[in-house]
Write a structure and sequence with these properties.
InterPro entries: TAT_signal. This is LPXTG cell wall anchor domain-containing protein. Keywords: Signal. By secondary structure, the chain is α+β, with helices and mostly antiparallel strands. Among the domains are: 98 residues, Sandwich (Immunoglobulin-like), CATH 2.60.40; 33 residues. The protein is built from two helices and ten strands, in the order H-E-E-E-E-E-E-E-E-E-E-H. The strands form three sheets. The protein has a five-stranded mixed sheet, with no helix packed on it. The chain has a three-stranded antiparallel sheet with strand order 1-3-6, with no helix packed on it. The chain has a two-stranded antiparallel sheet with strand order 9-10. The longest helix is centred in the C-terminal third of the chain and has 32 residues.
Length: 201
């Protein structure tokens, strides 16, 4: 009779131990899949496909993309200007979104001034802190080449001014040429007279 009681007690203890072990093994999995906390949010360049699960911390125009949250879950997000270019307090963008049946969602494309930012993503049913991401907006401002300063090129001929105030470059050129010819003729005449006088002496 005592042996039978001992066997029964051992069987009961073994069953209890198995039950406790199963519960302990299941606990981490249940915690990991707690409603609301099993999703992730990514920063995506505006040209990146929604199915891409990479995070892109350096963008210009961008959107927020989520994966594996609960079906039809409501989320709220905000973006704060972050150090070293921000004060960690100024909110520069924010909004709400309802995810689809697969826990996926995508915001509209958006743009911010170049700088460092931090995203906070809160959602219904969250058990811990908000999801967050830090990222840089780096669009850059294209440098503008200075316009060349126009320079005035002086005409080789002075403009002649008519009675009505109009100018005539051709006339001025002709007048200038005539003056040169007259001067050359006078010089030649003087040389001829000097030569003749010398011959008489």
């Amino acid at each position: 009779m005592p042996a039978r009681r001992t066997t029964t007690a051992l069987a009961a203890a073994t069953a209890a131990s198995a039950a406790i072990g199963a519960a302990l093994l299941a606990a981490p999995a249940a915690y990991a899949d707690a409603p609301g906390d099993n999703g992730t949010v990514k920063i995506h360049d505006s040209v990146t496909d929604e199915a891409d699960t990479r995070n892109e911390p350096h963008v210009c125009t961008f959107y927020l993309d989520t994966f594996t949250f609960d079906a039809a879950q409501d989320a709220q997000w905000r973006i704060v200007a972050w150090a070293p270019t921000g004060d960690k307090q100024t909110e520069v963008a924010g909004g709400t979104i309802t995810l689809d049946a697969e826990g996926h969602g995508r915001t509209e494309d958006m743009g911010l001034a170049d700088g460092h930012y931090k995203l906070y993503w809160n959602f219904d049913g969250e058990k811990g802190a908000a999801k967050h991401k830090v990222f840089w907006v780096e669009c850059g401002t294209p440098s503008e080449s200075p316009s060349p300063t126009p320079t005035d090129t002086a005409s080789p001929y002075a403009n002649s001014v008519g009675a009505d105030g109009s100018t005539d470059t051709a006339t001025a050129a002709a007048t200038g040429g005539g003056a040169l010819l007259a001067a050359a003729g006078g010089y030649w005449l003087l040389r001829r007279r000097g030569a003749a006088a010398g011959a008489r002496h």
